[in-house]
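User: Please run a holo structure prediction.
Assistant: Happy to. Please share the sequence and the ligand.
User: Here you go; the ligand is 1-deoxynojirimycin.
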Amino acid sequence: MRLGPSLFRMTLLSAAAMVLAPAPATAQAMLQPPPKAMPANPTVDQTDWWKRGIIYEVYPRSFADSNNDGIGDIQGITRHLDYIQSLGADAIWMTPMFPSPQADFGYDVADYDNVDPQFGTVADVDQLVAQGKARGVKLLLDFVVNHTSDQHPWFQQSKSSRTNPYRDYYVWRDPKPDGSPPNNWASIFGGSAWTLDPTTRQYYYHFFYPQQPDLNWRNPKVEKAMFDAAEWWLKRGVYGYRLDAVDTMFERPDLKDNKVYPGVDAFGVPNQDHVNNSKQPEVHTELQRLRQMVIDKYPGRILVGETWTSDAQELVQYYGPRNNELQLPMFLNLISLPALTAPDLRQRITGVETNSVGGWPSFALSNHDSRRVASRYPVPAGASTDDWAKITGALLLTLRGTPVLYYGEELGMVNNDPQRIEDVQDVIGKKGWPKEKGRDGERTPMQWDASVNAGFNAGAKPWLPVSADYATRNVAAERADPKSVLNFYRTLIAERRGNPALAGEMTMVDRANPNVLSYVRSGGGRKVLTVLNFGGAASDLTLAQLGGGKFGRVIVQNRATMSSTGIHLAPLGVLVVEIG
Ligand code: NOJ
Ligand code: CA
């Protein structure tokens, strides 16, 4: 893998990815009202609960601030459970809320068995679990497996002397004879991946910040301690984990240098691949042990993977040889694409369909590390970021596989990037400015209503500024607008849960079309056709070209008009329709 600056943001976090019945004419006449209650998907049984609706990613710092200190918290999430339920989420994935110095906003964990006071208490998590249970919304936590905080007691012990019993919890090596780091490995967050500890005169290894020392998973005591931590929360009713940065859990023991390429990364470090310190074969054996020794002891519990892969062939390895590894290795590849085009999407999605045999796919288009999808790509003349939100939402929510939706994606929230380095919170943005502005822009407060701070809190300055569009782009306003992005998403999520076609097979149609991506989902004797115009110009398609049949009920449409025999789609036009 080689990280060029433009791809840095999208790939840095993995360390590894590189590399129609006769139609009434208008859209509004045909729109379904937003669903009131979420139907259960009839085709999916209880143990496979994670195939039904969606997983909703919540970044606790930014979702809702219940005590008005400017930082979102767990009670804030609990207060909005009705909303999350009404969206049709089966589970929340809550990013780290463990005690942490917040060097990487929680991805530097100082105690796996506790909660950072700024987010609340363990009792607050218990309450979120209980209140979620009452609404059919399960809780998944984020398990940061590769590294701890440098403030974790294990690391404090480890660095205290070369003979401390915790020394081997981390990766320590002698300097080279000239005092330089043991090899050329670069941290993905800037600079060398090695930091010298002056007391014990050895270097410790960190793929991310120096405040995030890598755990040594070759030490059985580390495995035991981490497995115990995972189990601690499962016993409290948590339903599983999104596993952070799995690919960096192991390094080549001989510490072979990485190959260096021309040019420098956003931090001025020569580009290099990371083949010797990521994606080692031991990652898979270790994840399989976690599944077998911890997760499978608790019925229905799941592992979701932060699995950045270059293609589906690579992705399939994370299911394990007997589906004994991760239930949901996320296919994050679509997040990293510089443009969304029909042929490219067709090929990548077909790859997942073909390769994940026996496994169930999972897709995401936005997350807390990547520019929000509604504002990621240029907007064609006459269209808006809302149209991007709708076409990408239609894609994500009609694919076969569990969608992981990032908070605010359902509102069409856009990036709100810092304009000055002084305003940046995310350290990679401070270090990499202006080439790398960090991830603040996609982490701004959730927009609930038109009141102060978009209803995020009662008026204290939020840790990141609320996006300027909040007065109109918010949950309350969008709920009331039948044409809103929110109602578009809600309609599709409800359809996914209730229509067996959207739990069934997937077939690409009109496969040579260079602009429009079309596919049919079928199951339970029903069929749903999705047609998405990713081209820069309007497109006309005949029903015959899309596989024939008759148009039935329109599920959603945007920038699309229909006749009895065909469809006209403006750029970013969308139609999702039952086929009779
Ligand atoms: C991936 C997380 O999503 C990201 O936010 C974090 O900075 C890195 N892993 C390091 O934990
Ligand atoms: Ca708070």
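The two ends are 47 Å apart (CA to CA).
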